[in-house]
Structure formats: structure tokens, C-alpha cells
Amino acid sequence: MTDRKDKVTARPRLETPLASRFRGFDLDSEAMARSSENVARFLGTGRYLAIQTLVVAVWIILNVFAVSLRWDPYPFILLNLAFSTQAAYAAPLILLAQNRQDNRDRISLEEDRTRAAQTKADTEFLARELASLRLAIGEVTTRDYLRRELDDIRESLTRLEKLAAKPDVPGELA
């Protein structure tokens, strides 16, 4: 009974692809993804469209006008087969390239989220520090306040000196 339980827990997670069952035919998935991305990029260029248009035009012209070279007569079945084969390979290659781009976008999004969270934490920390500095500055004695206090003390000292310099008059309270 424990063997069955071990087998159940040993299953891979759903988002993890299964290992290839064909041991004799191994492909580097990263290299395949890079090459499919390169092919998909090339298929989306104006250069590719120009080359394909030129090949199709030459194909049709040779099969219509060069009677001795006619290898694919008018319905152009061989040309149609070539287009079908091209489409059969192009679509999966484009999908592979899209999956690779989706993975890059997902990683970039995760990095952006992490960076945004760190920026938010830094901003909150700086806001707290700024608030504490404002409170501390509010408690710091300013030059004007100190000058007023010194002036008050000086005036008090001057009054005391004047009072001390006055002769004592009998009957006056000091």
C-alpha cells in the first residue's frame, strides 16, 4: 500500500513537462527555441516576403511560358504543396517563438514587480526618515529663538545690575 502512495507523490507537477519517452532522439529545447525564434523573426520580415514573391513569380513564369521547363503545369499543384508544407512548419515555429517571448515577458514582469516592491519599500522608509527629521528639526533650537532668549537674559542681567548698583533706601523692599 505504501508503494502506491509513493508513486502518487512522485508525480511531477502539472506545469513541468514530462521527460521525453524517446531516449534515442534528444533535442536541446533551448537551441530549438532559439532557432525557431530566428526562423519566426525571418518569416516576419520584408526581405522574406520579397524573396518568396520573387520565387513564386519565377515559378509561375517558368511553368506558364517555358514549355520545355514545365515541371508543374497550370493548377500549380507542386507550388501549392510547397506553400502547405511551409505553412505546416511556419505555424509551430511561430508558436514556439511566442512561447519563448511569453516566458521572457513573464520573467520581466516578475522582475518589475520585485523592483516596484523594493522601490515602494525604499520610498516608505525615506518618508519615515523624512518625517522623523522634520520632527527633530522642530525640536532643534533655531538661531532666532536662541538670539531672543539671549537678549532676554541680557536684559534681565542689565536690570539686575542696575538694581544691584542702586543704594539701599531704607523702607524699600528689594
TrEMBL record:
Pfam families: DUF1003. The chain crosses the membrane at residues 48-71, 77-97. It comes from the Bacteria. Keywords: Membrane, Transmembrane, Transmembrane helix. InterPro entries: DUF1003. PANTHER family: INTEGRAL MEMBRANE PROTEIN-RELATED, MEMBRANE PROTEIN. This is DUF1003 domain-containing protein. It comes from Nocardia stercoris. The lineage of its organism: Bacteria, Bacillati, Actinomycetota, Actinomycetes, Mycobacteriales.
